[in-house]
Request: fold
Amino acid sequence: MSEKTVIQDVSREFYDFRYAENAAYKVDSGLTEAIVRQISEEKKDPEWMRDFRLRSLEIFHKTPMPDWGPSIEGLNMDHIVTYVRPNTQRMQKSWEDVPEDIKNTFERLGIPQSERESLAGVGAQYDSELVYHNVREEVARQGVIYTDIESALHGSYADMIRDHFMKLVPPTDHKFAALHGAVWSGGSFVYVPRGASVEIPLQSYFRLNAPGAGQFEHTLIIVEEGAYLHFIEGCSAPKYNVANLHAGCVELFVGKGATLRYSTIENWSKNMYNLNTKRALVEEGGKIEWVSGSFGSHVSYLYPMSILHGRGARSEFTGVTFAGEGQNLDTGCKVVHQAPETSSYVNTRSISKSGGISTFRSALVIDRKAEGSKASVSCQSLMLDDISRSDTIPAMDIRTAKADVGHEAKIGRISDEAVFYLMSRGLSEEDARAMIVSGFAENVSKELPLEYAVEMNNLIRIEMKGAIG
Reply:
């Protein structure tokens, strides 16, 4: 039996292990021009990227903090270290060459085992740098490129990176997009050529180990006409008594008739501010499938966005959020229909307990020229006690009468009758409630790769401990 399975079945503290900070290099805390130039020099940026960082920094200072969602008053950029290079000199292609403490971290998270058993390629980031990246030879033979974005930036794909980098999410989008543009580091680049089909998923895993630090990885994926890719993103961090920040960026380009499935399970520690931005542009007949599980962080602002740019483009979003004590998770999605006969489907579940706050926030826009489009939004919320909170905030901007739009929202509590029935069949109250919650979230777990579905159900069961009463 694998170590991961054993630990999963025992405790959520599985994610809270940590190693002593052993950084090879890090910048001072705070955000100044000198620090941004320092990061740029450390990364050996081309001139255009250095200038991009400095422009982003200017935008960050001019842009106000968001005031419409959960409070982020506890986040003070003067106390955040924006770049931490782990004690490894370069990215490795063999786990054996990764420094022992970092390798042990990913071994305990089960990443090498997953790569051996069920993945076509893996990228592993520790603090601000990719420490490992590899892709199966049979996938590479299809012309698929899967590497760290910085190697791509300095190599044969430099022009492709420049043409796409922060074009979907410009620094002017919001304050933390500007922050990302200034201090980004690490992340993955995937290019799937026309007609190629990557049947086995690729995965990137992000681990933040340093206290008081931020992680700002950039993921860029380009799936050309008629191609297929399933990409999995996982992330976690040990718990500290100081604020940590995650402000990554994901940009997805889905070509004509192509399909990209993007699955995420994020289990950040509960001192994390998760202010991540994800966006996809979908061309004619293409499809983006988002599968999202949000279990960690103190505060989250997370709304993956689909831009349906070509006729017949499609988007599906399936998500679950679990907010426990001390958590305020503001999640949802955005869809913009820009072309005729496009379609989108949103199906979410949110669960809150022990005073946790879960908010589903969606924005649906159907342009005048998007005639014949269809959109459906369904969100259901489950509160496990009388001190938790769940809200639904849908926004719809429909600019043509020739569209079919539906919205459904339900908020409720666990039925005492259902709990009593299951207890009468021999289950404890704790197991009965956990079974009901797992069933409530089943529509998401069945969409996840098997390993992540098991992990999600174990997290739900562990979170339920102590929830009774």
Summary: Residues 1-21 have pLDDT under 50 and may be disordered. The first strand starts at residue 25 and ends at 26.
